[in-house]
Amino acid sequence: MMRDRLAPLIPRNRLVLHPGFWADIRHIVRHNPVRLRCRDRAVAHLPCCPLDTGHASPDITSTQPERAMPPKRPHVMDFLQTRRSSPAKTLSLPVPGRGQLEPILAAGLRVPDHGKLEPWHMLVLERQALIRLAGLVDRLGPMRGLTRERVEKTRRQFADAHLAIAVVSAPLPSPKVPASEQQLSAGAVCLSLLNAALASGWGANWLTGWMATDREFLNTGLQLAPSETIAGFIHIGTAPNPTPERPRPDIGAKTTWVNS
Predict the structure, then answer these.
(1) Half-sphere exposure of residue 89, counting CA atoms within 13 Å on the CB side?
(2) pLDDT digits (tens, 9 = 90+) for 18-54
(3) Residue-level pLDDT at 238
(4) Contact assessment for residue 168 and residue 231, using Cβ atoms and an 8 Å cutoff
(5) Of the residues 126, 134, 155, 230, which has the fewest C-beta atoms closer than 10 A?
(6) What dihedral angle (degrees, nearest 10) is formed by the CA atoms of 146, 152, 157, 162?
(7) What pTM, to 2 d.p., does this model score?
(8) E strand or H helix at 3, and its extent?
């Protein structure tokens, strides 16, 4: 019997077995046999999982091949380490058409999303919509007490653009996932869209501004629900080549290693 063959090889004072141990072994062996070797002697067909005994395990080696690690993608790491947003005011025509934009949108939605709530959606703003929003900014800005310079800067963000994606943060009621975490997921959509556009050869920039949380702008201009806000406007177009680099944070100054 299996028990009789294994028992002499595993000292009893080193192994604590639950009452159904041997029944479990027989069930697993019957449905998932894997040839193992114990102390260099074939002793049984056992499952390919370690026994949690609290002590050193016998020398058991499975002939089943180890699971391969995901392949390295050095070109992806090179992109992430050299990516650079293009200033929105420098973006010009042409912009991606619908067929070129859809893969970027699909990549943008591959983000961490605790609970699979999908607490976001996107609005693709084309030229006429952007012109309309520029007029709304021009009307609402002075009513908010903003300076003429600030209103004009925000107005041009829309008036000079040819394509932008508004990422809408739309938190849902959840007993497990707080609204703040859902908003972070919407921010992840912004970054994914930005990087997908850059990786596709376009210039892109992530902007917000006072109108991203202005209730009248959101209601009138974008028809958003009362609980929804804008996580970002992702502007996409043709960028001057090359986009100049800027100083980057010092890793040592921004990183703390915690080992205890």
Answers:
(1) 4
(2) 555 556 656 555 655 544 444 444 444 444 444 444 5
(3) 98
(4) yes
(5) 126
(6) 140
(7) 0.75
(8) helix 2-6
